[in-house]
Specification:
Elements: H1 5-18, H2 26-33, H3 37-49, E1 53-56, E2 62-65, H4 74-81, H5 105-121, H6 125-128, H7 132-142
Antiparallel strand pairs: 1-2
Helix pairs in contact: 1-3, 1-4, 2-3, 2-7, 4-5
Length: about 140
């Protein structure tokens, strides 16, 4: 299983923003991670729409967490950003797989996805940002 770049970038943004008390800019995050500002704008917008980030425009503006890091559950973030269908047959409305009724793989993949989501559900953003090296990286990138 692989996260989409979109979700990967979203998690990185949350880590960066959650590792500092100061408002940060998309430009700062873009430089730190080597991700285009246009991609980050879309990600930040979606995270703000979901309440994970609070954005302020203007001279003293920037991006901050929209809620405490200990309340941002990684499974919820993942489920908000990903469509959830690991394979086509998981979605009855769009499934066109000709072997759906006779294939046993679907059940194995559903169990695997469920286990993946269960593990994500055990962690919050605060669990990920307690790394002093990450804090140093963020502070250096913001300088």
């Amino acid at each position: 299983m692989r996260l989409t770049s979109y979700t990967d970038y979203a998690l990185r943004v949350l880590l960066f923003v959650g590792s500092t008390d100061e408002a940060v800019t998309i430009n700062t995050i873009s430089i730190a991670y080597g991700i285009s500002k246009e991609h980050l704008r879309k990600v930040v917008h979606a995270l703000a729409q979901s309440g994970y980030l609070h954005t302020t425009q203007g001279r003293n503006g920037g991006i901050r967490l929209g809620k405490p890091a200990e309340t941002i559950n990684l499974r919820e973030v993942f489920e908000n950003l990903e469509n959830g269908a690991l394979v086509e047959c998981f979605d009855k409305a769009t499934n066109t797989c000709p072997i759906t009724g006779m294939c046993g793989l679907k059940h194995v993949l559903q169990k695997a996805q469920s286990a993946f989501l269960d593990v994500l559900g055990q962690y919050h953003l605060s669990d990920m940002i307690n790394n002093p090296r990450l804090l140093i990286f963020v502070k250096q990138a913001a300088a």
